[in-house]
Amino acid sequence: MRKYLLLFLFFSSFLKLQSQVKNDTIDSSYLEDQIYVALTYNILFNKPNGIEQKGFSGGFSIGFIKDLPFNKQRNLGIGLGVGYNYNAYIQNLKIVGDINKTLFELAENYSINRFGISSIEMPFELRWRTSTASKYKFWRIYTGVKFSYALTTKSKYSDENSTIRTKNISDYNKFQYGLVFSGGYSNWNLYLYYGLKPLFKNNVTFDNQKLRLNEFNLGLKFYIM
After folding, report:
1. 12 phi, psi to nearest 5 deg
2. Of 194, 118, 113, 189, residue with least CA distance to 149
3. Where would you tag: which of 101, 129, 142, 216 has the fewest CB atoms within 10 A of its CB?
4. Which of 182, 177, 191 is nearest to 143 (CA)?
5. Which among 192, 188, 169, 190 is positioned nearest to 179, based on CA atoms?
């Protein structure tokens, strides 16, 4: 009797293990639909001589990504998302003007000089992960492109004599796109974005140089199931 009991327990454990393996690798109809939040440090590339970033230039994104796996194990797929993004740049490029004309010049002896962009963003990701239907902490690598469209652009300049606010800067390229990468374990992921399109239009100049600034965002991205 004891021998049969041990044999029964062995086969029960074996069948339970096989069921778990099946649930994790084959019977996995789950999706990695996720809310995401990103916090970044923003860097301007291709700065002309004389332009420097001063202070902390930061940004954040929040949105939702729809997961579309395309293999049986459901560890490969694509992600299509939509979200909101805000980036601020603290530098010595003074941006003032109106909807018809914008002036770009070197700022000196100022207390505040900030340029901010609010955008709707649309990430498109190729996704690889080690997740299963019951494994919520896993490795991931997501890479692809991100498109964005600026809702508002604002600059604020203050010195001891005045404060100048400029909204809806006409020389800003409202439609942006660039390369994105996020990778890590569980909720903690390194996040990178490099803008392929310059922030300002081709005719914008600073000190007789074309102003061909590109943005680079480095930070952390959190995925919430």
Report:
1. -65, -45
2. 118
3. 101
4. 182
5. 192
